[in-house]
Design a protein that fits this description.
With about 500 residues, the protein is mainly alpha-helical. The protein contains 20 helices and no strands. α11 (about 240-255) runs antiparallel to α12. It starts with a helix and ends in a 12-residue tail after the last helix.
Amino acid sequence: MNLLSSTYIFSFYTLLSRILGYLRDILIAIFLGASIFADAFFVAFRIPNTFRRLFAEGTFNAAFIPSYTNEKINGKNKGKKFADEIFNLLVLILFLIIILVEIFAPYLVYLIAPGFFENSEKFNIAVELTRITFPFLLFVSLSSFFSAILNSNNKFAAAAAAPIILNIILIVSLLISYFADLNFAKQLSYSVTLSGIIQLLFLIYFTKKFYRPSFVFKVKVSGKVNLFFKKLLPSILSSGVTQINILVGTIIASFQTSAVSYLYYADRIYQINLAIAGIAVGTVSLPILSKAFKQKNISKISNIQSRSIELSLLLSIPASLGLILASEQIVSALFGYGSFTLKNVEMTALALKFFGYGVPAFALIKILSNFFFARNNTITPFYISTFIVLLNITLSLSFFNKLGFIIIPIATSVSTWFGVIIYTYLLSKNNFLLLKDYLLNSVVKIVLIAIFMSFLLIFALDQYANYLEYSYKYKSVYLLLIVGFVASVYLISCYLTGLLKKKNFKTI
C-alpha cells in the first residue's frame, strides 16, 4: 500500500464532505445567523456530533484496528468472533445511553451549556433539539465500527465518503424548510438522525465482503473483548483530545451571547485541514503501522513514522499560516451573508485566527498518538491528553472574565502544543520515535516554501482587498481564485523540491 495514494483517496472524499459541510453551514448562517435558534441547534448537534468525531475520527480505530488485526493474523474466524462480540456490546451500550439521555436531556444540556439556563427559551429549545438529534449517536457509532472494519482491510474510500450523506441530507432539509416555511432548527435536528440511519446502511453494504455481523442477544465478554473496552475508554480521551477541548470551549462559551456560534463556525473552517493533515494521515497509517509492529519490522516502522509526520506537516503548516493571515477574508467569504453580520464575521475570524496557530499541533497529536496505539498502548496517550484538557480548562477559566470567549481558541492551541512536546519527549525517551534522517531536511523545506507562500498570499490579499470586503457580492469567487493560485504554487514547489514524489511514500 502507498501511504500517499491512500491518503489522497481518503482526503478526496473527506474534502468533498467538508465542502458540502461548508455549504450546509453557509445556509445555516444565512437562515439562522448567530441567533438563539442557532446557538440551541449547535449545542444539540454538538453533543452527538462530538461522540461522532470521537468515534469516527480516530478513537475507535485506535483501539479496534490493532486488536482486530492481531486476531485476523491468528485466524479469520477469530477475527470474526472478536468483531461480533464488540458489535453486540456496542449496540447494547449505545441503546442504554440513548434511553438515559432522552430521559435526562435537560441535565445534559445544562452540563454542556450551563449559560443557557439564564435564558429559558434558549434552554428549552436546546433540550427539545437534543432529544431529536441524540439517536444519531447510535447509528453513527455503529457506522464507525463498520468503517474500522473497512480501514483494517486497507479500504478507505467508503468510510471517508459516508459523512457526505449527513451534509447532503442537511442541505436538502434546509432548502425544503426555506421553501415550505418550516422551523429550520427542528427540521435540521430530524435530518441529523435520518442521516445517521442512511449512513449506517451505506457502510453495511460496503463492509459485507469482509464482515457480516451476527446478532446475538446473549452478551459475551471474553478476555480479549474486555481488554478492548479497557483500551477504548482511555483512547476516547487521548485520540479525541481536540474534540474534547472544543466541547469544553462550548461549555465555557455558553455564558457569552453568540459565542457558541462563533466557535462553531471557526471550528468548521479549520477542521477541514485537520481532517486531511491529521485524521486522514493517521487513519491510513495506523493499520500498516500496527502490522509492522506485529512483524517487528523496524525499517518499515521508521519509514511509516517519518513519512506520516512529513505529510502531516506538509499539509498543516501552510494551512496554519493561511488561516492566521486571511482569517477575516475566509470567514466573510464563507459565511458573510444574510443574517450573518459584519460583527459576526469579525468575532468568528478572531477565533479562527487563534485556532490557526494550533493547526499543526492538532494534526501532529493524531500522528504521534498512533505510535503508542500501534503498540496497543492507550494509557500513555490517556495521561498526556488528560494533561492537555486540564491545562485548557485552567487557562480558559483563568482568563475568560478578562478576554471573553477568545481565550478558548488560544487555550486550545497552547495546550495542544504542550501535548506535542510531551509526546515527542516520551517517544524519544522510550526509543519509540524511530525517524529517518531525511525528515529534518524535509521539514526545513516545508517551512521555507510555506513562508514564501505566505508572502504571496499577503500580496494577493492586498491587491484584491476591495473585492474581498464584506459588502462585495462576489468575494467568495475572488478568495477561491487567490487560495487556488497560492495553493497550486505551494504544491508545485513541494513537488519540484522532491517533497511530493509518490515513490517516497511507498510503505509496502
